[in-house]
Structures are given as structure tokens and as C-alpha cells.
């Protein structure tokens, strides 16, 4: 059925900038991130005047990441405000990332005056056309009085069905032009469809970020606990039910849960690379998939479902609950399936070593993280290992590189989370766990954190490289062999780089960490400081790696991406990287 709401605002002698700002405010947009310049300075000022919180960033890409993260965290899209030409181009990465993550975000871009098109105007660029590839909706209002309706459609499109990025173009001559209007109408339509679900012998629920977007945590908890079903969260489905829930089988993910389940119920999750496409060897070749999704186009991608349920996740789960309650059905706790899963859910044994490893660092971090903290994570090994070792207990409290695997999103996400936390006064800490390579993409955003006094705790897990690096001694030896551009392996970064000093330079707190004791002390101090951001530069063993996973062979024509590449290790004898 359709639910309709009408919003009205009165406007007389308003500028185009005011129309945009007030139209966004009428859609309950609360946050705007961007970098101002010609011709959109007045739009940012009008947004602030209308009550929208404006956060000035240092890079449009990070601004778009932040705005999209607000959409995920709050359910209402954030706005990324950019200047024309290069400014918009810098935001395209954030738009693509939002689309792949299914997060609502609105990009508002200034452009050259309409009467200067094709004349070589300042930063002239086909912006509306360029954004169509990266968004669900891309348009320029044809006149000032069309701005409210275009903005309304953009906001609705960003949230409707599968969320994503939208783009609204505003030409320079429209920003300060005025129009006299007395009444504008804004209408929202929400579509809800639901169908019933089936049961299984060896069931496995896979909970995706679509369920997080649908705010389905309540019904999902009732389903899992009322029916005794095992569940596995995807990276950003984590926290809808706590990671330490007795029915969470994440620790048995690859070797038992996915491989042996005979029926998999996808709740807002997609069978893409994160779930190994639903194919062998990670899945049983005869598995039956029941797919629940808002998007009809997603049904049957990679694996033909036994049942395709089109509708809102929360509504579908509620109807399923009604169905099973009438039958009084509950999956038995003493089945062989549950026994197999529980046998695999063992914790990793920790060895004390120096320098520390990923597993040691995450183990100690996990002991101190507040249960309700918002956890941001990006990197290669840092993010992959952190997914299993850093607990999430609440829904929509984890942000990472997501479906698109985008590096550089972390600090923008953390700024967005901190801004939302401050605006809502939740008292929740924002902790951003970064690989050293990932931190380099947006590291200068620590100045933004310091400028706005956002008390983000950044933990850089520093292994001197991308995947793996070398120690300072080896780096010095390579430098003596010749020009580093021809000698240094491409995956290496500068050993023991002082990322902590970057934070110190802007007035935040920086800590250099080498031991468990230094880590615990620095993290405790940082979590207690609400006045400024902190950065823990945690130096670990450059050869530290993650445990081996199930693999297949390169000669499988269907699954080349299933091969897990072994880490490169530096061989000081051969003076080159080699496979172990």
C-alpha cells in the first residue's frame, strides 16, 4: 500500500540558494558536508540559516563519503555540496561508493551559468550527464520554481527501494536569482510489499545491510530467538543482533555455516563477492536460496532462488513470525546442524609476541571498546581481521569499505558519525580503525576533526605497507642497493611512519604504540577525552597476516576470484618478496 505525506513551506522573494536549502530542510535533511567556492557559497550559508548543520571538509571525496554515511546512520540522506567541474569530479567516487553500498546521499553541485554553456565558461563540464553513471537520479531544475519539486524527487529517489546517490545541479545564475512563490508542496510515497517465508532443515539466515536500512532489528531478534535459527551477519549487517549472540555463527562462517547449509535465507544481503557469489566451493552446490529484497532486479543474481520474496525486510519478517507462531514451530536446539556449528565456534588462541600482530592488537582493542561505540574500519588485513575480532552489539554501528571495497572512506565516515553523535547527543564514542595504507587516502581530514573538536579515536594499525611491508633495517638496506623507485617493492610504505605526529600537529592527541601496555593505556586515555580527537599509531609486525581460508584452484572457470592470494613475505637472503 501507499502512505502519503504532504509538506508545505511558504516562500516569498527567495533566492535559488534559499529554495534549495529550504526544500532540503522540508525533507528533514539535517547534515551537509562540502567545500565551498564559486558558485555555491550562498547555498551553504542558506543551509545554515535554515537549520541544516554544515561541516566544511578538505576534500570533496571525503565529504561525499561523510554525507553518505549520515544517510546510513540516520535513515535520511546527507548532502554533499560541491563546486563545479573538478569539485564535482572529486565527489564521483563517493557517489559510486554510496550506490554500491545502497546508502542514500544527495550531491548538490554548482555549475557554470546557463547563458555561458558551450562557450568555455569557468569549470564548464557536462555535470548532469557525468553523474548519471554514478547515481539513481541526475537533473538540473529548468527554472527556480522547479527547484522544490526536483529536490523532493531527488530525496525520495535516494531513499525509495534500494537507496543510493542522486545529483541536483544548480547553475551559477540560479543561485542568487529570485522568485516569488507563496506555496510549495512536497509529497512522499512509501511502497511496502511483503510475502511469507519458508522453513528449512539446516537453515542459515544471512543478515545484510538492507536489513539495517530497513530497521528490522526488532523483528529479526524475535525470529532468531523465537525460532532458534542460526544467523550470519554480513560486514554491515553486524550489530542488528549482537556479535556475541548465542545464535551468531560468524566464527564458523566459511568452513561450516556457508558450506553445509541446505537452505540459506538472504535478508537484505546480496550474493556478490562478499558472499562468494553463493557458489561452490564456499556454498553447497545444491543449496536452496530464499531471497528477500526490495529490488526486483536483484532477484536471481548468480544463483536462482527457490523463493524470491519482494518487499520490505521488516514487513516480510513480521509476516513470517505470524506464520510460524500459528504453527508453533521452532528449530530444535539439539540437531546435528547446531552441534556442528558450535564445534567450529572457537576463539583464536593468542600468543604473546613483539612486535604485536593483528590478532593481538584487535584482541586488546576489543576488551576496551564501549559496547555502544560506532566502529569505523577500513584497510585490507585490518578490515578483514577486524570484522571477526572487533564486536558489534548494536545495529548500524559499523561502517567499513562495504560492497565497493573503497579505500579512503574511513575518516569521512568517522566525521559523519561524530557529527551525528553530537547532534543527537547520544554519548557514543566513534572509533576509527585504519590500516596505514588506508589512512593515507584521507589522512588530512584529521584537521577537520580538530577544527570541529570531534572526539574521534583513530587507531592506525601500521605494518609499513599494503598487505605487508618491511622493517626499518630492511628499508635502509634497500636504499643502499639503488634508487628506491626501482628497488623498493610496490607494496611497501615508509617504515614506522609517525602518523601520530600528524594528529599532534593540529592540536589533537597522538600516541606511538609498540606494546600491549602502551596500547591499553593510550586507548583508555583517548576514550576518556571528549574534547579532542586522538590517534594511536600502533606499530605491528610487518609480516603479520591473517589465517588461511578455504581456497579453490585457478583452473575453475567460474570462480577465479575465490582464490585467496597468499601474502608476499620479504626474503632477506634473496632480497625480494616471495610466496611462503
TrEMBL record:
Location(s), subcellular: Peroxisome
Cofactor: Mg(2+); thiamine diphosphate
Gene Ontology cellular component list: peroxisome
Main location: other
InterPro entries: DHS-like_NAD/FAD-binding_dom, HACL1-like, THDP-binding, Thiamin_PyroP_enz_cen_dom, Thiamin_PyroP_enz_TPP-bd_dom, TPP_enzyme_TPP-bd
Protein name: 2-hydroxyacyl-CoA lyase 1
GO terms assigned for molecular function: 2-hydroxyacyl-CoA lyase activity; magnesium ion binding; thiamine pyrophosphate binding
Assembly, per entry: Homotetramer.
Annotated family: Belongs to the TPP enzyme family.
Domain Thiamine pyrophosphate enzyme TPP-binding: start-end pairs: 382-538
Superkingdom of the source species: Eukaryota
Thiamine pyrophosphate enzyme central domain span: 197-320
Alphabetically ordered keywords of this record: Fatty acid metabolism, Lipid metabolism, Lyase, Magnesium, Metal-binding, Peroxisome, Phosphoprotein, Thiamine pyrophosphate
Organism from which the protein derives: Esox lucius (Northern pike)
Gene3D superfamilies registered for this protein in UniProt: 3.40.50.970, TPP-binding domain
Enzyme class: lyase
Catalysed reaction equations from the record: 2-hydroxy-3-methylhexadecanoyl-CoA = 2-methylpentadecanal + formyl-CoA; a 2-hydroxy-3-methyl fatty acyl-CoA = a 2-methyl-branched fatty aldehyde + formyl-CoA; 2-hydroxyoctadecanoyl-CoA = heptadecanal + formyl-CoA; an (R)-2-hydroxy-long-chain-fatty acyl-CoA = a long-chain fatty aldehyde + formyl-CoA
